[in-house]
Amino acid sequence: MDCIFCKIANGEIPSDTVFEDDNFKVILDLSPASKGHMLILPKTHARDITELGEDIAGKAIVLAAKLGKASMAALGATGFNTLANTGESAGQTVFHCHIHVIPRYDDASSIVSWVPGQSDKEVQKETAKKIAECIR
Ligand code: AMP
Ligand code: ZN
């Protein structure tokens, strides 16, 4: 399979590596949203987080927290966003699962945001029920 993140995760293509262990390589994003923007790349190919598996997904979120804290200690970030874009409509452009860790600084504008909408009590109730019935 011709997957650029498989090649980076397995060392075939060089990258600015922040961390590596048996399961992950963490690199700096080539087009960073902020200073220190990192990508957690699982070494085993998965298309997105829905294919990741509980063990690796759990380890990835623990690692994301450590990396975010490290960016605060090392770079003076005052917070960080952790996100995984899943599917084209959500902005995923590379289809090898990766988790973004984006350090945030007090003087920077919002990177991850949305316009808060209105909620309707009945619609919310029905929506929660619909999703709950599909959790597998
Ligand atoms: P997403 O849009 O969530 O799929 O994120 C893909 C991310 O990968 C983007 O933020 C890109 O800037 C980043 N990216 C793409 N190619 C490379 C690369 N060769 N090295 C580092 N980051 C990359
Ligand atoms: Zn891959």
TrEMBL record:
One biological process term in Gene Ontology: nucleotide metabolic process
Active site: H98
Organism domain of life: Bacteria
MF (Gene Ontology): catalytic activity
HIT domain: residues covered: 4-111
Pfam families per UniProt: HIT (PF01230)
Positions occupied by motif Histidine triad motif: 96-100
InterPro entries in alphabetical order: HINT, Histidine_triad_HIT, HIT-like, HIT-like_sf
Name of the protein this chain belongs to: HIT family protein
UniProt source species: Lachnoanaerobaculum gingivalis
